[in-house]
Write a structure and sequence with these properties.
By secondary structure, the chain is mainly beta. The chain has seven helices and 52 strands. Strand 8 and strand 9 (about 120-125) form a beta hairpin. The protein is globular and about 75 Å long.
């Protein structure tokens, strides 16, 4: 039996900028109401032993009683659907920062001193309209007290770069002054002058400032000696209220496992010592003080923490009711808050983590595995020994490629099927010394496809230390030269054949001033040279860039034209299985008619921690419908999944009983439905039915299968005296295909979490075909389940030749 999560939860997409000149302040009071939304919790933190905050959709929610009740505290006038940062210094003093939706480089800061009942709003300009630093990936705040604080604005870049801007205030946010920052990670201060931050694309360096952020110096902790790669990542420290006792977490990637180390100080950070080290375990169990550094510090010193805790990664991940803790915010020796790994439930403990109570729960989790998670088909027909494929599904990128053991865990437990490879370039930040042909062969065996990426010189109007020339002719030659070097590396890695043919490589071109016409011309010439050289070797030329700075669609008019694009457009802060390539992308950035033949990858989050199978990695998340490197001899069959049907009547929680629907979540974290089984020919409304309409990229014969979720013994309030009866043995599916319509009657009764074969049928490419199922059955009152359908291509299909690329204008 699978329990259904009903109640509260949240969804927020983050985006922000920062603060300098102050515009007129306003004091506003939000309505005092209790919220009953059903989105997934995206961010949360503590405000005291029984107080917490959480962001959901466009709302900020607060609780003062340990989660028994919640009230809306959204600052009036703020849109919390983009990048948002929330911080509380104590029970009552807090701040919310958001980006102005129509003014690049402008941020709005809301401040409260009465626990969110009234807010004062101020707008500030941090960046010029065309400043690349104003393209924001994430934002964090840290407050020393009610007047002294810092704001980190992390720039939107690829995983190869980690850049951000630091701003400081001494007047509660009324004015802000720019400081230095050695990266783009969060800062933590124990005084007005002393603070820490991680640096580098992997967070592999730890930095300290003693002048409030004007200058920073690398601090070396007494690291343990590890075998294997030894890649480290640092996290912000936590201190007690007296500022003397602190602990910092460092994760270490080794050849065999991921390990966690805690380093503690008892003199305000002057000296640090290793106090704990343990391997990450997906099923670890124990008290919070044994598994969480902040909880350990709180209980071992007997002192409260310096301020209410923000959520921090929870690396041990003990299993909890078919979920795992992903982040934890400890507020008291015994009390704390946690988010499960699916992002669906906010949990609260009052006994140090021995037991947890659900305080907010989404009706449908927004994270988890799709069904299945990707489909792949060869991308080329005429490329000799082609080693590419078209992949539709989730992928991720990271600077330093994780170990084979870690990636095996992610392949087994996670949703991703493609991983980025920084194969080289003079501006590649991470060495990736273990990246060789043997390593790629191992990962291919695990099931991975790849996004090869080259990081060379950047646009001439940027501040990067390596830039190509402003003269278009010179820039064109430099682009060809970079492609030549990239092909040599791809050949050595066996991504390409011995002639450099058959692969795809994406050039990492970071943001630059799209209003600088000379810079745009030079960049387009460079990309043209890159494209011409790769295509001359019969390989695909790709480009990674921001979607809108300048508009990536501007490269579509070049000749020769890029074969594929990978663009950054952030609107989430964690994995979202429902993300689409073009959701929210303005047409002036990328028209739907360009690179439309499965030639796109969309990066929708910046750097964030995710944990799958007990392995925590810092990644960007992507959704793919584009070209990847695929080294398998025989790729898996193309599979298109429609995770949930279009149902009639449409589902609404308030009228579910009258409409005859029961909604629940199947084992793949997708929405499923049950409907009343009605006798065949019944006319008493409602007559429930569902449609599954796939978009098929290839004409051919497809095996059609319906997923039948387990649902026996699920109690439904609409039938208070009984549980839902078993499924029908008389379900009639009508498949509308290229040659007409075929009705097939199927027995769903014995199936639990299994795929039911409905037959094989011819379909044309596109979205004309569909499958229909209604709730009229011969063996009523049995029920009918409506869940996922999948379409699996049989045989070769009508595979397009290489000529389909680049059909950019259609």
């Amino acid at each position: 039996m699978r329990q259904i999560g009903w109640g509260l939860a949240f969804l927020v997409m983050l985006g922000l900028a920062a603060l300098a000149p102050t515009v007129q302040a306003r004091t506003l009071t939000p309505p005092a109401s209790v919220t009953t939304v059903a989105d997934a919790v995206r961010s949360f933190g503590g405000r005291g032993a029984t107080r917490a905050w959480a962001v959901s959709g466009a709302q900020l929610l607060l609780t003062d009683d340990g989660g028994a009740s919640w009230r809306t505290a959204t600052p009036p006038g703020l849109m919390l659907t983009g990048v948002v940062a929330v911080a509380f210094h104590d029970d009552n003093a807090g701040w919310v920062a958001t980006l102005a939706p129509t003014a690049p480089g402008v941020v709005t800061l809301a401040a409260t001193t009465d626990g969110g009942r009234a807010w004062q709003l101020q707008s500030h300009t941090l960046f010029a309209a065309n400043d690349a630093a104003g393209h924001i990936d994430a934002l964090t705040m840290h407050w020393l007290d009610r007047t002294t604080g810092w704001l980190v604005v992390r720039q939107a870049t690829s995983r190869n770069f980690n850049q951000g801007s630091l701003f400081a205030t001494r007047d509660g946010g009324a004015s802000w002054q720019r400081r230095a920052l050695p990266g783009g990670e969060a800062v933590y201060f124990v005084s007005a002058t002393t603070g820490w931050s991680a640096g580098g694309p992997n967070g592999d360096r730890w930095w300290r400032t003693d002048d409030g952020g004007h200058t920073w110096a690398v601090v070396a902790l007494p690291y343990t000696v590890t075998s294997g790669r030894g890649g480290r990542r640092h996290y912000p420290p936590v201190f007690t209220a007296d500022g003397r006792h602190g602990v910092v977490v460092v994760t270490t990637l080794t050849a065999g496992a991921q390990r966690i180390h805690w380093y503690a100080t008892h003199d305000g950070g002057a000296r640090w010592a290793l106090v704990a080290g343990f391997p990450v375990a997906a099923t670890a169990a124990g008290a919070l003080a044994e598994l969480d550094a902040a909880a350990w510090l709180l209980t071992s010193t007997g002192q409260p923490l310096r301020q209410p805790a923000a959520a921090a990664p929870f690396f041990a991940n003990p299993t909890l009711d078919a979920a795992a803790l992903a982040t934890v915010a400890v507020t008291h020796a015994d009390a704390g808050w946690a988010l499960d790994a699916r992002g669906a439930r906010l949990l609260h403990t009052q006994d140090g983590g021995q037991s947890w109570q659900v305080q907010l729960a989404a009706a449908t989790p927004t994270t988890g595995s799709a069904i299945p998670r990707a489909h792949t088909v060869r991308a080329a027909g005429s490329i000799p020994t082609a080693r590419t494929a078209r992949l539709a599904g989730p992928g991720f990128d990271m600077c330093e490629l994780a170990g084979a053991e870690d990636l095996q865990q992610w392949m087994t437990e996670g949703p991703y099927r493609a991983v980025n490879l920084y194969i080289g370039g003079d501006m590649r930040a991470c060495d990736n010394v273990t990246l060789d042909a043997a390593r790629l062969a191992t990962l291919t065996t695990q099931g991975w496809s790849f996004i090869p990426t080259w990081v060379g010189p950047q646009a001439p109007c940027t501040d990067y230390h390596l830039r190509f020339d402003l003269d278009p002719a010179t820039a064109y030659a430099q682009g060809r030269a970079e492609a030549e070097k990239a092909l040599q590396v791809a050949t050595r890695l066996q991504l390409a054949n011995t002639e450099g043919a058959g692969t795809v490589i994406y050039y990492d071109l970071e943001a630059y001033d799209g209003q600088d016409t000379a810079c745009v011309a030079a960049s387009q010439a460079f990309v043209t040279g890159w494209t011409a050289r790769l295509q001359a070797s019969d390989s695909y030329a790709g480009l990674y860039a921001l979607a809108c700075n300048p508009a990536i669609g501007g490269y579509a008019s070049l000749a020769p034209t890029l074969d594929a694009v990978w663009f950054a457009a952030w609107n989430r802060d964690q994995f979202d299985p429902a993300m689409t390539i073009m959701a929210g992308i303005p047409t002036w950035c990328l028209a739907p008619t360009v690179w439309s033949q499965q030639q796109r990858i969309r990066q929708y989050t910046g750097g964030h921690d995710e944990t799958w199978g007990g392995v925590t990695l810092n990644i960007d998340s992507n959704v793919l419908d584009g070209i990847v490197a695929d080294l398998r001899e025989t790729p898996p069959p193309l599979t298109v999944v429609v995770a949930t049907p279009e149902i009639t009547p449409t589902f609404a929680a308030a009228t579910a009983c009258a409409d005859g629907w029961h909604r629940f979540t199947n084992v793949y974290s997708a929405t499923a439905y049950l409907a009343y089984g009605q006798p065949t020919g019944a006319t008493i409304p409602p007559l429930n039915y569902g449609l599954w309409r796939p978009t098929l990229p290839i004409t051919g014969t497809y095996r059609v299968e319906a997923f039948i979720p387990s649902h026996d013994a699920i109690a439904w309030p609409c039938r208070p005296a009984t549980s839902l009866s078993p499924d029908t043995s008389q379900a009639r599916y009508t498949v509308y295909h290229r040659d007409g319509a075929t009705t097939t009657e199927q027995d769903q009764l014995p199936l639990n979490d299994a795929w039911l074969h409905l037959g094989s049928y011819p379909f044309a490419a596109g979205s004309d075909g569909f499958v229909y199922l209604d709730a009229a059955i011969a063996d009523a009152p049995k029920n009918v389940s409506f869940s996922a359908l999948r379409f699996v291509l049989e045989g070769s299909g009508e595979l397009p030749a290489r000529a389909y690329l680049p059909m950019v204008q259609r």
